[in-house]
Design goal:
The structure holds two protein chains of two kinds. Chain A is of the alpha/beta class. Helix content of chain A is 49%, strand content 11%. The chains are: A alpha/beta, B alpha/beta.
Chain lengths: 340, 225
Amino acid sequence: MRPKERFLRRLSGQDVDMTPVGCTTAYGAVALMRACGCERPLADTDPAAMAGLALAGHTVAGFEWVKAMGWDITAVSQALGCELGAPQIDLQYFIAGHPFEQRSIDELDCPDDLLSRGRFPAYREQFRILKEKVGDELAIFGMSEGPFTCAANLMGTSNMMRATLKDPKTVEKALEVTTAALARVIDFAFDCGADYYCMADPSSGSDLLSPRSWQKFVFPAMKRLAEAAKGPLVLHICGNTDKIIPMMCDAGVAGISIEEKADLKTAIEVAHAKGVRVFGNVSAASTLFMGTPQECRAEATAALAAGVDFLAPGCGLAPNSPLPNILELRKARDAYFKAQ
Amino acid sequence: MPDIEELLKAMHDEVVSFNEEGVREATAAFNAAEYDPLRGILDGLAAGMNTVGRLFKDQEYFVPEVLLCAEAMNAGVELLKPRMRGAEVKSEGTVVLGTVQGDVHDIGKNLVKMMLEVGGFTVHDLGANVPHERFVEEVLRTDADLVGISAMMTTTMMGMKTVIPMIKAGKPGVGVLVGGAPVTHQIAAMFKADGYTQSAADIVAEAKRVMAATRRAAPACCCQR
């Protein structure tokens, strides 16, 4: 079975010959940059370099689907006015300023030229290159921050957190704009040829926000985006997501992506009962980054044995993750199914 | 005159329900009755924050609730402070706190700061994105017992590995605690940190444990040989 067919069949719940292996978050690892010659800062801004690094995920790391739209989750926030910190080869773009920390959120709107701002023109070209080179062979996904994280970036996370209890109208207003912006960005990705779209919404995770507030603020935004999307969505949230996984699945997404801090077996049971697929959940920090290849193999094999639908890191690959560790994902999958 | 226990309970309860105005009213009544302001802080406001810490640990409360409870507590502390002049408050220890160089995230570090202050520690907060040398300078300046270092990203977390030996070389015997989303027990041990907690709710107990352990391990003075 060809990788793209395997991926798309699995995502829609059909039978496949083996579990696809790859990464549904960012994989801007320095080892991959060095292997393909596409390093930051070009790998963040130049379409050819971005595409080169995306393809290295397949040619070097053995991933069976590839990522468009950069190696961080700041692009929509940037287009809406957030200041970014300068990246280095082993440091992705990060949010350095919150334009609505002091200003009223009433001044926030979704600009008409959103998709001409920031890195979106480069993303369009990156999609074109990837579609031309591997569009028939590999699934291609677009990715960005989710609506809650984007709103928290704009307002400042502490302000956003306080407002969920003291000023819910401000949170709703911010989410209205970020959700509208995300809807346009998701449309953009599918129009550019994405096979699916992944939203990472770490600021809405249960390390910060209560499941009650997730239901109140995040769930409606996710549902709205899933209903409007022209293709399948995957929702990634870091940390222990056990208490919000049922809601994540009910939002209408095709897949969820979870970390090792969540209970994978229970997540799979809950998700499958709702027709949702699970990506994960090899620890990006303590195993793929800090662990040994043997530990990576063991954790990947455990995820496969638990029945994960897509074997993947639990979160974005840390930039300095060693290549031998990353390679263990593919090796573990191949060995697991050879032994079956 | 209102009963002191009733007022302390009201101060506690209003902190837990993050009602800043309620905290002010209860604290004003406590002040009007001229009760001991130190008791008001310890057995009223800080006791409320300890309950909040437990609720946070039990996942009844999350970051928004904790932030608002801390602000409510601080509103009460501000009203008691003017009557505290001259009162002797014994500090549990001195902690230098900061988010590691290159990392701008500070919510977790701020929660740790609140918990330590409520637990009776004197905290010197260096903020976020703290250059390695600043930790060492501040430890020496304040003669700190402990240093708390936070990181939110795997990339910046590696700065802990660099800064911990620098701090230990600057002041041997100081206890170093680390925390943050990507940090685990194993990583803390690998970086030779003395303490780690997964949740800010456990920081006071861990800080006390590390202080006791580092004191025991401190070399005897030459005259005791």
